TrEMBL record:
Belongs to the ropporin family. GO terms for cellular component: motile cilium. The keyword 4Fe-4S does not apply. It comes from the Eukaryota. Transmembrane segments: none annotated. This is Ropporin-1-like protein. The lineage of its organism: Eukaryota, Metazoa, Chordata, Craniata, Vertebrata. Its main location: other. Keywords: Cell projection, Cilium, Flagellum. InterPro entries: ROP_DD. It is found in: Cell projection, Cilium, Flagellum.
Length: 217
């Protein structure tokens, strides 16, 4: 059946007045985030926008941009996005985590590898998974904690990167418990020395604090 000839004029085409600004913000977000798969990321962006959820957008451009071929895929900026999107739930549904991960164009193999490090049966405890994500970014426990502080802090970029001591203690203890070479005694000694050091600062801890604590095994 032939398509009928249709005449269109400006009066027949309705363009929502908010569309130009939506597309402008979308373009800026894409430039900042530099997604590896623009189509997949765009789906996640507009899905989150339509539901009033945190957008999968980095705060700033990360250079170099991670790719599945030459490194882990996960970056501090991408982990921060996931934290914004999922941290309020505390216990995250696995399917929701997989969807958010996929929309950030991250390799699913890496997600499976991180999940194997713990026994997440009734959902994924977010702060534990966040700690595992930090461990994928850092080559050592303290390096992982440095990433955690820099992602979680409300301090300006380049500042002390302070977070509540209780948050640090939970993340550190959890990651240390997964390392067979770190005994519980060493963990407790480190945290006690650290707590004594930051006690005068209302239990806020920054990256400079924990790197100066020396504890003998």
């Amino acid at each position: 059946m032939p398509v009928p000839d249709v005449m269109f004029c400006a009066q027949q085409i309705h363009v929502p007045p908010e569309l130009p600004d939506i597309m402008k913000q979308f373009t800026k977000a894409a430039i900042r985030t530099q997604p590896r798969d623009v189509l997949q990321w765009s789906y996640g962006y507009f899905y989150a926008l339509s539901r009033g959820e945190p957008l999968p957008v980095k705060d700033r451009v990360e250079m170099p941009v991670a790719t599945q071929k030459n490194d882990t895929g996960l970056t501090p900026g991408l982990l921060k996005i996931l934290h914004k999107q999922l941290s309020e739930k505390k216990i995250v549904d696995l399917q929701d985590l997989q969807k958010k991960w996929k929309n950030l164009c991250l390799p699913m193999e890496q997600l499976c590898n991180l999940l194997r490090l713990d026994n997440f049966v009734d959902g994924v405890e977010w702060m534990k998974f966040f700690a595992l994500g930090c461990s994928a970014l850092g080559g050592s426990l303290l390096s992982s904690m440095k990433h955690a502080c820099e992602i979680l802090t409300n301090d300006p970029e380049g500042g002390a990167a302070r977070i509540p001591y209780d948050t640090f203690e939970f993340l550190y203890s959890y990651l240390a418990s997964l390392d067979d070479e770190i005994t519980e005694e060493v963990t407790n000694s480190f945290l006690k020395a650290l707590k004594d050091q930051v006690a005068r600062k209302e239990y806020m801890i920054g990256t400079a604090d924990f790197t100066t604590v020396k504890v003998k095994p």
